[in-house]
Amino acid sequence: MRCPKTENICYGVKELTLLSEISTQLMKSKNTPEELYSVLQYLCEYLDAENSMLSIFDINTSTISIEVAYGLNKLQQDRGQYKLGEGIIGRVVEMVQPVVIPKISQSNLFLNKTKLSLKKEGNELTFICVPVLVDGKVGGTLSLTRKYNENIDIEEDKRLISIVGGLIIQAVKTSKERRVELDQLRLENTVLQTQLTEDKSTFNMVGNSGKMADVISLIKMVGPTHSTVLIRGESGCGKELVAEAIHAASNVKTKPLIKVNCSALPESLIESELFGHEKGAFTGADSMRKGRFEMAEGGTIFLDELGDIPLTTQVKLLRVLQEREFERVGGTETVKCNVRIICATNRNLEELIETDKFREDFYYRINVFPIFIPRLRERRNDIPLLADHFIAKFNKKNKTKIKRITTSALDMLMVYNWPGNIRELENVIERACILTTDGVINSHHLPPTLQTAESSGTQSTGGMTFFVEKLERQLIREALVTNKGNMAKAAIHLQVTERMLTTRIKKYGIEVWRFKV
């Protein structure tokens, strides 16, 4: 059957195929100018057209510019800039109505900014321009130039071009939104990475839990001051790191930070270590020696395990806190000191005061700005970050290439009570890094204390259903980790529908956002 329009096989029969092909191509592509160019080329080949242009309307500047064009070179495309109401394209956007110019060489409306030929081999050309809508508002135009043929039904062409224009503009809009969203995510990631880098360089601590955020906030507030700080927390929770962070955030960070472990010093030597001694002060004192307070002049002194200091030494320290002065052991000369004092203890000072093992007046002098460090079992969300940090640390130290820790091993770390806090976790990870032979830390690389239900408090009496659900939960978490929290990809990985995966995630209370990177 011949078509009176083109004297060829009726292209109306091919219209559905055309739309299907264009839709498929737009769905598969990233909608770059090069890919949209091929779509316009496809449209022109179907309609036997000379060229086609997709123009985008910028509502902020009220200007229209050619986004992509087939049959135009780069210079011609750059010329295609229109104001609202200017030329045919400007009028189509303004009126939101299609415009057809049967013979462009005879029309005063056709501005021809692109400098195209107004005739083709002596034949007149027809220009068709239709508005394309996005969410009910005009987003631009799709125009097409073809040979004039009085037998062609222009209404059919306008309808087809409008449909194709709607498909293209929606694809362009979606693509731009994705690019904007991706750019925003990249910007936010850069900002967060910068903040993390700054925090790490300043605080040298790992953790993003709410309790650690509170600790970092306190460090930032007290750091620039000269106030005495008392750091409290269980052994192994990172009190020394907090002291280092306070010093790094202070105005004397370029001055020395002197650390003193008070519990490691014998009672007979602790005063000499802190305040120094004069020559001949005691047997073996062959020369004058400066103490830790003098060594820390202008900087910070960190008194760790302060709860183990003898009462007699507490009296002398009380004077240093109040007057910032002391005498060396065996001396009479008063030594002035300008030192920031940071103390730390894992002891219950209030109970020590009740049993007369700690001076109450000394307690109130050091308890100016207390900071309580949370136990690791109170900040379990930080365990994956700490595990990765220690893996990276031991990779560098031992020149190994441990790639990751499995979900099952991580689950065991998460449920353990951690009486030794971060120090114990570090030791566990170091042991596992030594035991693994394939670059992956598995549950059997962890100490037996972590693998028993009794030690971890995870006894269960469940039957087959309990263990099947436990395995299913583990598989879902593994898939989410592998696919960085992408639900669709995780569903494909597990060979289930996204709906089934969503149902299981709700059932097990898995927080997907934790797996996104």
Report on the structure:
With 517 residues, the protein is of the alpha/beta class. The protein has four domains: 11-179, Beta-Lactamase, CATH 3.30.450.40; 210-374, P-loop containing nucleotide triphosphate hydrolases (Rossmann fold), CATH 3.40.50.300; 375-459, Helicase, Ruva Protein, domain 3 (Orthogonal Bundle), CATH 1.10.8.60; 462-517, Arc Repressor Mutant, subunit A. Helices cover 47% and strands 17% of the residues. It contains 20 helices and 18 strands. It has helices at residues 15-28, 33-47, 74-79, 87-95, 154-203, 210-222, 239-248, 267-275, 292-295, 311-323, 349-354, 360-366, 383-398, 407-415, 421-435, 448-451, 453-456, 464-482, 487-494, 498-508; strands at residues 49-58, 63-70, 81-83, 99-101, 119-120, 123-134, 137-147, 229-232, 257-261, 276-277, 289-290, 300-304, 325-327, 334-336, 340-345, 369-372, 404-405, 440-441. The strands form five sheets. Strands 1, 2, 3, 4, 5, 6 and 7 form a seven-stranded antiparallel beta sheet that branches. It has a five-stranded parallel beta sheet with strand order 9-12-15-8-16. The protein is elongated and about 120 Å long. The model has no long low-confidence stretch (mean pLDDT 83).
SSE blueprint and pairings:
Blueprint: H1 15-28, H2 33-47, E1 49-58, E2 63-70, H3 74-79, E3 81-83, H4 87-95, E4 99-101, E5 119-120, E6 123-134, E7 137-147, H5 154-203, H6 210-222, E8 229-232, H7 239-248, E9 257-261, H8 267-275, E10 276-277, E11 289-290, H9 292-295, E12 300-304, H10 311-323, E13 325-327, E14 334-336, E15 340-345, H11 349-354, H12 360-366, E16 369-372, H13 383-398, E17 404-405, H14 407-415, H15 421-435, E18 440-441, H16 448-451, H17 453-456, H18 464-482, H19 487-494, H20 498-508
Parallel strand pairs: 8-15, 8-16, 9-12, 12-15, 17-18
Antiparallel strand pairs: 1-2, 1-7, 2-3, 4-6, 5-6, 6-7, 10-11, 13-14
